[in-house]
Each structure stands twice: as structure tokens, then as C-alpha cells.
Known about the structure:
Blueprint (H helix, E strand, L loop, with lengths): L2 H19 L4 H10 L12 H8 L12 H8 L1 H11 L4 H13 L13 H18 L5 H15 L6 H13 L8 H23 L4 H11 L7 H13 L2 H9 L7 H17 L14 H10 L4 H23 L6 H11 L3 H4 L3 E3 L2 H11 L27 E7 L6 H5 L3 E7 L4 E7 L2
Parallel strand pairs: 1-2
Antiparallel strand pairs: 2-4, 3-4
Helix pairs in contact: 1-4, 2-3, 2-19, 4-7, 5-6, 5-7, 6-15, 7-8, 8-10, 9-14, 12-14, 14-15
Amino acid sequence: MNFFFQIFWLSLLVKLVIGYFLPLLPDEAYYWIWSHNLQLSYYDHPPMIAWLFRLGHFLEPYGHAVRFPGIIFLHFSLFTWREIFNQLKISEQAFCRFLFLILLVPYLGIGSVILTPDLPLMFFWPLSLLFFIRITQNEKWSDYALLGMSLGLGFLSKYHIVLFLICAVVYLSLESKWSTIKWKYVGFTFILGLVFSLPVIAWNASNDFQSFTFQLKHGLKAENWKWIWPLEYIVGQFLMLLPPLVFYFYKGRKTENLKPFYYFTSTVLLFFLVTSFKSSVEMNWTLMAFPSFFALIAAMNIPQKTMRLIWGILIALNLALIGSMISWRSAHGKIFEPFFFSSQKNKVEMFKPLYGINYQISSSLWYFSKTPVYKIADASRFDFFDTLDAKRPKEKVIYVFKEKNNEYPTWVYDLEPKMEIVEEMDRNYVIEKLEFK
């Protein structure tokens, strides 16, 4: 067994062990609920993540192994990256460096066990890149067809796949590569891309294009602009790229066989820099650009001293992350939440009927207790819970799991219920009793 397969299977085993013991994060629990209510698409995102969770339903009795199909699915994208390196004639040694980088960078390594819409996107983005590179190097109609299929399936994963087309246009234009495109075959890409996108298109067509509208407003428009957003974006992305490596990424932009990596990274980063002047950009929105960043870095001749520093930083970050999971009560909110909600699952039986103030709380309690916990209707933002039949409570007395500073929707205050906090928990979480007249 060669070195790649040894690392492949060992790293997969490590991911499965972490995925088994790490409780589902609130957003994961939310998508798990989708998987028990299968649809062609959903208000928040396309359906692929729900389908992956559905494949793991038979594993639900075993820890958090419901994640396993998704973890395995994404892990096999390493074969795609290996083929990309071969296609661009980049050395096996460079690919090994790339392998270690993406397995040790926390948001690509340990983070890849977390099932969100980014996970299937991170599979179909490099797959589309592989077929795109093949298109620019040969005349096979099958590569055009496979590119369309991959883009269509990427659209069922996360709408960010449309940025792939922008990256491709920028690359072909700035590098004068349009002559490599065989226009007689482009129809295969278009038709198959449309066919494989049909579930999302059909759902939106029958639901007033709610999902498309929500995502456009969410990412490109904010009611009150804040000057800090672009600064937060630049600093955040710079740190995620690992500052010592940014110089070498820029230096490698003129190396011919590394140019696809450069354009499919920098175009995404620049796009979201522009949108940061319109709305706040979440750090994970650029996630699909990072593997190509590290692919270019891996192919560069970087001084050993610099790489030793990078390896040291990455190992320290992973140890700190694992340590924070062990001592989760004092950890950052994103690490604290899954362990905390897991420890509170008994509250669903203690306080009946129990509701959540937002989809994160309701989803987590529902997943861990395996008992439906609905969200108070119209609380927080509109989401999947607001589309369910169980909306406004009909009981005279209910309990709500919330943070102290969470506000109720207007209709609750209009009913003037008697409110009483019946239990206080860590981090300002409380259970509040509402008694209606």
C-alpha cells in the first residue's frame, strides 16, 4: 500500500472517531431535522446535506455516527485532488505536502467532520475544477458533460457553486484561454447542469423563489451597513490563509500550471471582499477557495524554516481545538454549544411542552432527546420551523428554552402572558414558563 493510501485510510479513521464522539452542532441538528422531512429543497439551502444525513439514519443508535456517510463522501474528494495534481503535472511530493496541509488546517481537517452545506460543496467544487482543467487541455465532449453534472450537483449542495463560473470566466479572460473552449460541446455542460439542478429550481418555482431571494438578501444586502465589515473580512481571511504563506501564494501566480489554483482562490476572495461593503460576510462562505490556495502553496519551493513554522502552528491549533473539546464548559460558544445542549436533553421530559426561541436551540434539543421540540413561531428569523404545521402554541402553559436576552415575537407580548424563569443554566441560558390567560 503506497503512502497516499496509508494516509487516506488513517485520516479517515481519525475523522470517523471524532465524528462519532463529537455531538452535533446546532446547525447540524437543524439539517438532521431536514433529513426527517425530505423535500426537493429548503428555504435556507439546497437539499444535498439533508440527503447525506438521511443516508446515516440507520447509524443513529451509535454515538453520532449519523455523520459517517457525509464524512466518507467528502473524504473521497482527496482522490479528485490527486487527479488534479496529476492533470497539471505537479509532483507527488507536492501532493503529499498538500495532503498534510488540508488534513492539519483545522477548518479543512477536523472541521470536515461537521455536516453543513459546505461539505458537499467542497466535494463538487474540486470535481468541477478537474473537469474544467481537462476541458482546457483536450477536446473530449465527455468532460463538458461531466462538468455540467458536477456543477448541477454542486447547485444542489450550496448556491455558492455559481461562483465557479465567475472564476472560470476570469481565468479564461485574463489568461486568453477562450480558444481552448470547444463551443460545440458547451451545450452538454448547460443542459446537464440544468437537469441536475432541477430539484432546487422546481422547489423554488413552486415556492415563490423564496430560497433564492433569502440567500441574495442574506449575502448581498443589509439594512444598516457597518464600516467594520470589510476590515473584519480582510483580517479574518488573512489569518485563515496563514499569514506566512500569503506571500508565496502571490509569488506563484505566474507559474503556468498553478494558475488555475490562483484564479479559483483569488476570484472568490475578491468577490466576497466586494460584498463585505454591502453586508457582513461569514467566514465559511469562502471555504471552497482554501484547498486551491493550499494546493498552490504545496507546489511552491518554500523554505524549510517557513514550513516548519507552519507545521508547528497547525499542530498547536489542533491540540488547542481538541483540548477545548475536552474542557468544553470554558470553551468558545461554537464548541460549548453541542456539549451543552447534549447535557440538557433531559429538560425535554422535565418541562412539557418545551419550545425553543430559535432554530438552533430547538434543533439541538430535538436531536439529542429524539423528541420534537418546536420553535416559537416567528421568533428569530424565518426558517424551516416556520414552515411546519406546529407553529403557535395552543397550550395555556408552555416552557421556553432561551437565553435571557432573547426577545419573543410580538404576538407573545400581545397576549400578555405571565412569565417566570424556572431554571437558570450556564452562559445565561434559562427555561422560562409562560402562562397565558
